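Q: Joint fold for the lines below.
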Amino acid sequence: MIAYIMCFILFLVGLYGVITRRNLVKIAVSLSIMEISTFLFFALIGYIDGGVAPIVDPADPVKTYVDPLPQALVLTAIVIGLATTAMLMAIIIRLYRKYGTFDIREIKNLRG
Amino acid sequence: MKGMTLIVKKTTQLIAGMILMYGIYVIIHGHLTPGGGFAGGVIVAGSFILVTLAYGGDFLKLVKEEAGTTIVESLATIMVILVATAGFLFGTQIFFNNFLPKGNVGELVSAGVLPLYNIFVGTEVASSIFIIFLSLIIFKEESPQ
Amino acid sequence: MNPLLPLFVVTPLAGAFLIMIIGRFIKEFNKYFASLILLFLACLSLYFLFITGENVSVYKVGGWEPIDKIPIGIYIVMDGFTAIVVCIINIVGFLSAFYSISYMKRYTAENYYYALFCLMIAGMNGVVISGDLFNIFVFLEISVISAYALVAFGVEKNELEASFKYQVLGGIASFLILFGIGFIYWKAKTLNIADIKEAFSTGYDRTYFLFVQILILSGFGLKAAIMPFHAWLPDAHSSAPSPISAMLSGVLIKAVGIYVIIRLFFNMFPISGGMSILITTLGTLSMVTGVFLAIGQWDIKRLLAYHSISQMGYVVLSVGIGMMIISKGGSKEIAALAITGGIFHLINHAAFKGLLFLNAGSIEYTIGTRDLKEMGGLAKSMPATSATSLIASLSISGIPPFNGFFSKLIIIIAAIMAHYYFLALLAVIVSIITLASFMKFQRYAFFNKKDDKNERRIKEVPFPMVFSMIIMSILCILLSLLVIPQIRDVVLSPAIDILMDPSKYTSIIIGQ
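A: Joint structure:
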């Protein structure tokens, strides 16, 4: 149970970072922390005590395997997370070019 | 920027090829061992990125490479879609149908179309990660107006 | 099992990458090819709308048949509600793509634009036709990542800032959704929506359900910009190129937000009193606050974007009223009426909000500004834009005989019949304020003063833009025909049936 709680705390750490940090890159890093906490959670829910990696061994087919589905989901989610982070970084580099700063307080054209 | 020091360049020469081979190994054994298209593709892209970083030079001249990689990426995706659509034409009319003979469990050539998917997904992932790297580095090097 | 179903995802996906390759070598290929793909999809979706009706078609990707009635593959489901939303996506998508042929001439890198456009369509179609929870997440990410890139397409200060804001909030939403999916998988050990319904119906753990429902509601609510999560919408929707604003406002927030909320809360979770009150409150809040924020805006696209929040509030409100009636065990007819109103308004909003954003794009295209104070007297020089925007404004503010009037009327009647007089009153007041706000838009943009300096230079926009706007305005008028019972039975009733009777949805999908 403690692992699940730690996982949720990691999520909240990421959320705290997104809300309080002023630096664009640090916000992106905080988002990645949130993302990784979610992946950890998925890995945890597929875990079975004493299970082995879900690769069928023809010699010994009856074994306790961990649940392979969450692992597949995590792999998919990692790809998506990669795309999101790359997109965010591209935007951050462009923003830095336009404003010359990473400080989010300076970037406030859109109001109202 | 003239690239990194001689030591880095020599080490890169030695290991980049091995990394590439390992990535290809992971891709083509994707249906037998852990790994597969995505993991192998990332390793392959890693070898390219390593060479680009170690030899450095003028990154702005890499625009041609970027264009080529984009085409490879798009082609790989279209191939995945074509293999998936082939399920329509052979056997039952189902998308993503595994229409090839399955073979024996544990052999390299088995599991029907899965190795094909792994190869194309691996190409796709390798090229797209390399593109991300190239685009970001070209963005960064472009002189600010 | 209909073998044509996966084409909704495959065609735009293949089209996007073909544009990336062939568009490099052949100029002008991209725009016509994208329009062609979208036209094909629009025809396909209309075909499905007519053949679906009462019979739900289920498609198992990869041919994975269920074992002991436990679904193991990914399911694609086409039922009445899906058919309606797929129609909205592809028809508005086609008109926007056709509109872009002239509009996007000002921008460079048109290849990327059309490729991203097709990817966004593929993602939205995937979200809507998928019957599997994780698949919904994957396609949702495909569509919103393309939307992030399209919002930033102008690469100027405003666009980049809006896109950054959208990405951060969208990222948080994605992880909340992912967490929710993880929790659902933890308990239910399956990802198929119908199967989850089956697993949930055995036990009832109140805290667990509340937690999961809140996670899912806040995640998809952020994507749909319901009131407390609305901060990104006005920036993102006003900064994007106009055809994309029409897509984002008219389609994307419905397909990835409202549609999924309605689908999951009716067909997956057991309907509970607390959640229905929460959804109704959120709907009312966004309906009222959206319109009050809109009335002070002078930037046309921001004004329209705030109205999107308000109009989505109507949809969420009426769906919430339906849920409240069901959870209290009230009359099924009134609940069905409320949900009919909501879905009818969802369709109508796609038509008139898409049209209004296209009008705003035409105005920006000709006079190069979005500020209402700098416009005026456009009615004479741009007759088509003026006439179509008048139709759209009358529709959105609920003037008979345009479509907005009928859907709002149904919502208000349902609220009165369910004895929620206060909500009905609020809906009427918001409608009146909407009318006031759009009278301001009409007066300042088209009728006000004569600007003699620019008079000669202003011309009507090119043919593709006029064509899209006229088709949209015809849709605005024709959609009011949906109130006629014979037509409603064909189009709306199957959707309502499948939402009102979750066991039917489950039995159809598990049973096959």
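Q: Anything notable?
A: Chain A has one domain: 2-99. The two ends of chain A are 45 Å apart (CA to CA).
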